[in-house]
Design goal:
The complex is a heterodimer of chains A (573) and B (155).
Chain A lengths: L1 E6 L2 E6 L4 H8 L22 E4 L6 E2 L10 E3 L3 H16 L15 H8 L23 E3 L9 H10 L5 E3 L6 E3 L16 H5 L5 E3 L3 H9 L4 E6 L3 H8 L7 H13 L3 E4 H22 L5 E2 L4 H10 L13 H16 L7 E7 L3 H6 L5 E2 L2 E2 L3 E4 H10 L21 H4 L6 H15 L17 E8 L2 E9 L4 H9 L7 E5 L17 H17 L9 H9 L9 H5 L10
Parallel strand pairs in A: 1-5, 10-11, 10-13, 12-19, 13-16, 18-19
Antiparallel strand pairs in A: 1-2, 3-4, 3-5, 6-9, 7-8, 14-15, 17-18
Chain B lengths: L2 H9 L9 H12 L4 H11 L3 H10 L11 E6 L2 H5 L2 H12 L12 E6 L11 E3 L2 E3 L4 H13 L3
Parallel strand pairs in B: 1-2
Antiparallel strand pairs in B: 1-3, 3-4
Helix pairs in contact in B: 2-3, 3-4, 6-7
The chains are: A alpha/beta (573), B alpha+beta (155).
């Protein structure tokens, strides 16, 4: 039902069931928020969005208060502004005030609020919180002293990721966001996806930085630094430097990375092609024997950790194929650098990933050959952007550089790994070819595209009909697992990505991205798929070359040691 | 607390239901004295609630302890009436004599000291409780006597 309300002495039409904030957003009046998170039900906890309603004695939070007919609202009256200002001042009372050194300086919700309220002095002096920084985790650093208790991290962790790694501990002024027995994130069910970092308004949550390690490696004359980047990186970097994400950006990025001092630049999409080949062979073997189905993909390290920690009964269903990052690392160290006459121990492999869980993946023991890791350092998109700025590289005056190493050639299937459903799409193209010897009639699988949390498709490969599913947002996978455990058998392959909508929205991406950014990033990946000539992994000349010269047939021989992982499958009780 | 004990305790409550959380935690504490992470994990598994959430609830309430109690658990009332009758000076005396901090347990686990808000016996203030024995109208002399007798008992 439509009716009129009055906002700041202006008549506005509103619908029953809308919150005040909905109406304000629509007509373009900004009220500050802190605990509000788009797409979630409001909690009304921070009170930052309070407004004054005529005839109501208290200020009400606009995020959770519903509109009623002829309500008279003032959004920026002196009383409201004063209340907001005091709220921010109270939050600042016990804040460490180390903005100059803070990771989130100039990109901080609290700093913005203080600025918006024009706070120029410390009015209240609270007791400083003496809390330990939780930095034992390989991916995420937690500094509770900077936390404003908005609770956004908890909601994302519970409702989107569904791992419940953190919660409010204590009561009243003693409340903290913490973990069970204050044991630290690395002792929890945390999957290191980094979605909590993406919603944290302050510097309380950040990635474990490898910034200095990489800079040191670049300046170490004994090392041979090389870099690989994930398919989502070009579009995200373009966004950061305000360049249109066109075809050129890939070559611009290559030029920038070379200028930073990396000897060779690799595209992880090429390794993704190899992942597809191995995974396809692995699936066909499983399918023919009808064992360990459905097969779960294993490229998302957060998902792999979730299975290993929480659902060990499904480890046997995980694909044993390495993720593209690790595969690339292994290829670089074992094969590519030998042709560049470098000793593997001198090669320093850096990878740029939109992901914090990849940091964890790269440091697990099984990602080691002898004493050296396959990938020596992982940096996120954010760290890369900082590094490009620090090294004074001007993106706009760069000369695009075409791929110098032959190993940069990739199919557009490998490029699709950055998005939920994309990995599966690429995989199905090759599975179809391997099963029938023919390409799919239409390579595009539109059922697997779009911003949805669960996508299903039915694919006919000769006589076989394959049901496949792509799930993103780890919390959504539980329903699927329940189905399978209740004997759902019609599904053969399930692709899981922990972050909502896949790596384009990963925990290492630029902060403050909205749905529009996601759509641009998604579009840029699908555009590549439309425009490029090589659309399937098995047609990538590098891949065929690798299999001829260096590797055994997909899924066999020494590929098992090089490109697959042995997982410890627990005995069933 | 043995596994069997815990299982019998849990079996009195419905599985996969969060309603039972507080009574379960209280019963465990009565039996075991304090809550451990292993016990919370078992409880979480039984009522189908993530262990971090169980800890979050337990940490909200003052009644739950995460450290073992001493052989002698001393509760000192800090309610208004007790405070006015000088219980705050008793706190310093207890901490000094028994080498235990408020809310803590001494290293030899002989004493633990807890401050409570009210014991509901304001007419007898100041009140002190050691294990199950109440000491109403405690005078400073009496406190010294209590401390001495606690030190003398061999366990």
């Amino acid at each position: 039902m439509q009716f009129n309300i009055e906002i700041n002495e202006q008549q506005v039409s509103a619908k029953r069931g809308e919150t005040i904030k909905n109406v304000l957003d629509r007509i373009g009046i900004h009220v500050p928020t802190l605990c509000y998170l788009n797409g979630f039900s409001p909690t009304g906890g921070c009170r930052m969005c309070v407004v004054e309603i005529e005839g109501v004695s208290e200020l009400v939070p606009s995020c959770s208060h519903l509109v009623t007919e002829w309500m008279k609202i003032k959004t920026h009256s002196p009383r409201v502004l004063k209340a907001r200002k005091v709220l921010v001042e109270l939050l600042l009372a016990s804040h460490p005030d180390d903005c100059l050194y803070c990771e989130r300086s100039r990109n901080c919700g609290l700093q913005d609020l203080a600025d918006e309220m024009n706070i120029r002095e410390r009015k209240y002096h609270g007791k400083r919180q003496l809390v330990q920084i939780d930095k034992a985790c390989t991916s995420i650093v937690r500094d509770p002293a900077k936390c404003v208790l908005c609770g956004r991290c908890i909601r994302v962790c519970d409702e989107i990721i569904g791992v419940y790694a953190i919660d409010v501990v204590g009561r009243g002024s003693e409340s903290r966001i913490g973990t069970s027995y204050n044991k630290g994130l690395n002792m929890q069910t945390c999957v290191k996806c980094g979605q909590c970092i993406m919603v944290c308004p302050t510097g309380a949550l950040s990635e474990k930085s490898s910034f200095q390690v990489v800079l040191d490696a670049l300046n170490n004359p004994e090392l041979f630094p090389v870099i690989q980047f994930s398919p989502t990186i070009p579009a995200s970097v373009a966004e950061e430097f305000n360049i249109k994400a066109s075809k050129d950006i890939l070559n611009l990025l290559r030029a920038a990375l070379k200028k930073m001092g990396f000897n060779q630049v690799f595209d992880s999409s090429m390794a993704a092609d190899l992942t597809i080949m191995e995974e396809a062979a692995e699936f066909i073997e499983r399918y023919n024997k009808q064992v360990n189905l459905p097969m779960f993909t294993s490229c998302c390290p957060a998902w792999v950790r979730y299975v290993e920690e929480t659902k060990p009964q499904l480890i046997k269903n995980l694909s044993t194929t390495c993720s593209p990052q690790q595969m690339m690392g292994r290829l670089i160290k074992n094969y590519i650098t030998s042709s560049a006459s470098q000793k593997p121990e001198n090669v320093f492999v850096v990878s740029v990933m939109p992901c914090t869980a990849k940091k964890h993946e790269a440091t697990t023991d099984r990602m080691k050959d002898g004493t050296s890791f396959n990938v020596d350092a992982v940096i996120t998109t954010r760290e890369l952007v900082k590094m490009i700025r620090m090294l004074g590289i001007d993106f706009n005056s760069l000369e695009p550089e075409s791929n110098d190493t032959a190993f940069s050639m990739r199919s557009s299937s490998g490029n699709l790994f950055g998005i939920s459903g994309g990995h599966l799409e690429g995989l199905m193209r090759t599975i179809h070819f391997m099963m029938t010897g023919q390409e799919m009639s239409t390579l595009k699988i539109s059922e697997l595209r779009g911003l949805k949390n669960k996508k299903e498709a039915r694919i006919k490969a000769g006589k076989n009909i394959l049901n496949v599913m792509a799930v993103n947002g780890l919390a959504h996978v539980n329903a699927v697992i329940d189905d399978i455990e209740a004997n759902r058998t019609d599904c053969q392959i399930i692709e899981v990505m922990a972050c909502p909508f896949g790596c384009i929205n990963g925990g290492g991406q630029s902060l403050g991205s909205d749905e529009k950014n996601l759509k641009t990033r998604m579009k840029s990946l699908y555009d590549v798929d439309d425009e490029e000539m090589i659309k399937v992994a098995h047609k990538n000349p590098i891949i065929t070359d690798l299999y001829e010269k260096f590797l055994a047939k997909p899924g066999s021989g020494h590929n098992k040691e090089l490109l697959h992982l042995s997982r410890i499958i627990p005995e069933t009780k | 607390m043995t596994k069997e004990n815990l299982e019998t305790l849990l079996s009195k409550h419905p599985a996969n239901k969060k309603d039972g959380l507080l009574p379960i935690l209280q019963e465990i504490q009565t039996e075991h004295g304090f809550l451990t992470d292993e016990l919370l994990a078992e409880v979480g598994r039984y009522i189908n609630m993530p262990v971090n959430k169980v800890y979050g609830v337990a940490a909200f309430y003052d009644q739950f302890r995460f450290k073992p109690l001493g052989r002698f658990h001393i509760q000192l009332c800090r309610g208004t009436a007790c405070h006015l009758h000088g219980s705050s000076t008793y706190l310093g005396e207890l901490e000094k004599q028994l080498k235990v901090k408020a809310g803590g347990t001494s290293r030899d686990r002989r004493y633990s000291l807890e401050l409570v808000n009210c014991m509901g016996a304001c007419e007898s203030s100041p009140v002190l409780r050691v294990n199950d024995t109440f000491y109403p109208h405690t005078t400073p002399e009496e406190l010294t006597r209590i401390i001495r007798s606690l030190k003398e008992i061999t366990v």
